């Protein structure tokens, strides 16, 4: 999630108009096996100032047949701002190598600025609400020859636009929450026979995932994987009691001897710790070969964060950047840490509490059962528990903000930021993508997060 200042360009060069701001949030897209394979980019389009929009409209009405070099319309300015924003390094980093699915307006499609988007990194989503005329079809065909791929977005049932656009799309995204359930089996069968990939969006419950999986859907968008009932489909990479015991020990002030004794009971944890200690930046000029040296090289703070995130790691041999639950936990935790540091009088203790709030905000997805009982086992402080269970206090407000950003609920995110001055929704969006990039880097030795492989 990020905010980019865009210097809008006309077709002939720079203009004197004020730069526009576009914000972006990301939403995970998973494979049938439950692994990350892409991100939907949720766009908060910039607003053109009213006076500028009025002037541009008046100019266009006065000179409707002006040469192509005339100043861009407000809609073109917005389209170019979004395209330029998508090209920024913060967005690219937060995608962690996965393709981006992005909704495109008619103005974006018809404007040549869209050609700046690398076709191998972007899937262009076409809404059924678009005005589908000969000009738009011709443009889609032209872009298709340049290897751009299209998605028919948020289908609920076939209509005229659906029929016109279907031949040109590779993926059909079906809004599972709004589509008639009785229609889904036949619709899925017909589209699969036509060679289309099926993407179900709005999948927030395990039952919906299982139903769509049974119908042959290929991709899934939603947060079903972060719900407690999905824990049966995952294997944690170390026994849960071992992780909990280690976390409880780390909550105190353990000696190296105590940590060494606890870790020796858990070979998987030892393996990960040795990897972490020997990764770049931690081993000081020599290879770490003993557990005691690994503990000293890594430090208890890094071990604690590594263990917290390891709770969410899939037991299969899954790369960090492809594990949706671990990615979500790490991104939330890092966002909360960044956001709390922006607030007045925030110190190291507040930042640590914010990280813990984010990382344990859906720990029931791993352990099942009551979230409250799991938090009690972890002996988290009352403010952290109140933030997670009831969204209370400043920590609760920041947690609600990151949840709104995850869903692209821009108005709610902006309203929440008003209660967290001086944090703005634009800054929050920027922190969100920075957090996503942090979570997605496999070699995270300096901050205590590494590629987790069994």
From TrEMBL:
<protein>
    <submittedName>
        <fullName>Cyclic di-GMP phosphodiesterase CdgJ</fullName>
        <ecNumber>3.1.4.52</ecNumber>
    </submittedName>
</protein>
<dbReference type="InterPro" id="IPR014408">
    <property type="entry name" value="dGMP_Pdiesterase_EAL/HD-GYP"/>
</dbReference>
<dbReference type="InterPro" id="IPR035919">
    <property type="entry name" value="EAL_sf"/>
</dbReference>
<dbReference type="InterPro" id="IPR052340">
    <property type="entry name" value="RNase_Y/CdgJ"/>
</dbReference>
<keyword id="KW-0378">Hydrolase</keyword>
<dbReference type="GO" id="GO:0071111">
    <property type="term" value="F:cyclic-guanylate-specific phosphodiesterase activity"/>
</dbReference>
<dbReference type="InterPro" id="IPR013976">
    <property type="entry name" value="HDOD"/>
</dbReference>
<dbReference type="Pfam" id="PF00563">
    <property type="entry name" value="EAL"/>
</dbReference>
<feature type="region of interest" description="Disordered">
    <location>
        <begin position="51"/>
        <end position="72"/>
    </location>
</feature>
<dbReference type="InterPro" id="IPR001633">
    <property type="entry name" value="EAL_dom"/>
</dbReference>
<feature type="domain" description="HDOD">
    <location>
        <begin position="236"/>
        <end position="426"/>
    </location>
</feature>
<dbReference type="Pfam" id="PF08668">
    <property type="entry name" value="HDOD"/>
</dbReference>
């Amino acid at each position: 999630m990020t905010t980019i200042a865009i210097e809008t360009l006309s077709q002939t060069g720079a203009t004197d108009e004020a730069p526009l701001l576009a914000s972006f949030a990301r939403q995970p897209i998973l494979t049938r096996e439950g692994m990350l394979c892409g991100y939907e980019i949720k766009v908060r389009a910039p607003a053109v100032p009213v006076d500028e929009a009025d002037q541009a409209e008046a100019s266009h009405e006065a000179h409707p047949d002006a040469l192509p070099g005339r100043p861009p319309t407000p809609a073109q300015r917005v389209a170019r701002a979004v395209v330029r924003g998508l090209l920024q390094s913060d967005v690219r980093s937060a995608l962690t190598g996965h393709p981006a699915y992005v909704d495109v307006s008619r103005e974006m499609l018809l404007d040549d600025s869209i050609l700046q988007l690398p076709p191998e990194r972007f899937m262009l989503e076409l809404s059924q609400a678009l005005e589908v005329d000969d000009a738009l079809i011709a443009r889609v065909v032209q872009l298709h020859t340049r290897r751009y791929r299209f998605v028919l977005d948020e289908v609920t049932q076939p209509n005229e636009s659906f029929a016109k656009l279907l031949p040109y799309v590779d993926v059909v995204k079906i809004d599972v929450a709004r589509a008639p359930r009785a229609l889904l089996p036949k619709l899925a069968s017909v589209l699969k026979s036509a060679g289309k990939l099926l993407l179900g969006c709005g999948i927030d419950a395990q039952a919906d995932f299982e139903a769509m999986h049974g119908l042959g859907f290929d991709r899934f968008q939603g947060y079903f994987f972060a719900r407690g009932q999905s824990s049966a489909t995952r294997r944690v990479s170390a026994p849960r009691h071992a992780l909990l015991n280690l976390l409880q020990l780390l909550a105190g002030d353990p000696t190296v001897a105590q940590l060494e004794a606890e870790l020796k009971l858990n070979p998987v944890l030892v393996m990960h710790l040795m990897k972490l200690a020997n990764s770049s930046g931690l081993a000081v000029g020599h290879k770490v070969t003993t557990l005691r040296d690994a503990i000293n090289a890594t430090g208890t703070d890094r071990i604690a964060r590594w263990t917290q995130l390891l709770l969410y790691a899939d037991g299969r041999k899954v790369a960090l950047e492809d594990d949706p639950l671990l990615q979500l936990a790490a991104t939330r935790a890092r966002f909360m840490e960044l956001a709390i540091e922006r607030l007045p009088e925030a110190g190291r203790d507040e930042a640590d509490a914010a990280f813990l709030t984010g990382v344990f905000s859906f720990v029931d997805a791993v352990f099942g059962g009551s979230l409250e009982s799991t938090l009690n086992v972890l002996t988290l402080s009352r403010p952290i528990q109140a933030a997670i269970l009831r969204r209370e206090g400043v920590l609760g407000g920041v947690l609600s903000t990151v949840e709104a950003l995850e869903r692209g609920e821009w108005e709610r995110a902006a309203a929440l930021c008003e209660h967290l001055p001086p944090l703005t929704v634009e800054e929050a969006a920027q922190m969100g993508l920075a957090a996503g990039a942090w979570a997605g880097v496999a070699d995270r030795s300096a901050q205590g997060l590494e590629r987790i492989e069994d």
